[in-house]
Amino acid sequence: MGAIMRNAERRTVEDILRQALRQCLPDCQASDGDLNGPADEVFNSSEARAIKDEIVAAGKKLWLREYVDGNGGNISCRISRDHVICTPTLRSKGDLSIHDLALVSLTNERLLGALLHTSELLLHLEIYNAVPSAKAVIHCHPPHATAYAITGLVPPGNVTPEQEVFVGPVALSPYETPGTKAFAETVLPYVRNHNTILLANHGLVCWADTVTHAEWLVEVMDAYCRTLILASSLGAPIRNIPQEQIVNLLQIKKRLGLPDARFEPAAPASVPEASGEPVTESASSGEGERVWNNEEAFEALVASIAEQVMAFANGGE
To answer: Please, what is the average pLDDT of the chain?
Structure first.
């Protein structure tokens, strides 16, 4: 019994230390693993309630903007290192409530939730595993972006500042049957350097640090594609932003911490214009690995300080 009590006290000390250190160390505040414990505690936490509300709000925005139809599209948010909250299958995003959402493990096991979760969560999980900094994923079918996806065309770049800063060069992944592992893996060559990917003959997928920001990327992308389609009907060539001004936009993008294939030394300088070919992708820069190593170092720091606190509390034993 004494050992059990000491272990419980140790966990309490570690929880207090985690909270205090995350407030004192800014680099640790956004790390995964903030919520540890039983699935029901994670799913019913105040953090989870805020995420559920955000998912429902984003679903309604997608439906009102006509970026999803029928029961199309899916939304997820990573709430801890081991858990995501996601939308159900066969449910309109315009009709979502927080009670429709599920808690799912990163191995695609539904832990809590009355409804079956979306089969396309496999796509989201591949992104979370490949890009640890991705905290939210939205897949949907906005008409103007999907028009490019079904023609195999890649929208040209260097046209509007919003697109260059928030999205940048666009990748186009090959077609596979939705909901399958093969479909989910089609984004892997691109997802580390692109936060927005066209899915051939299907739609697009976006990832960001929050559900709201991922939804913004959908809006930026579809508005850009719509603008290009409208401009092409005017009978005049589209004028590009001068390259020296693109450099300035990329500096803004770096300050915002957004990914871009042009930041990678081995990445292509630009996306092939209207080629119909998927964008080639360079190897990962290792940013995701550094995120996990920072988290492991943080936990080691917590354990070390907790050990000293427990020793002090037990009279220096």
So the answer is: 85
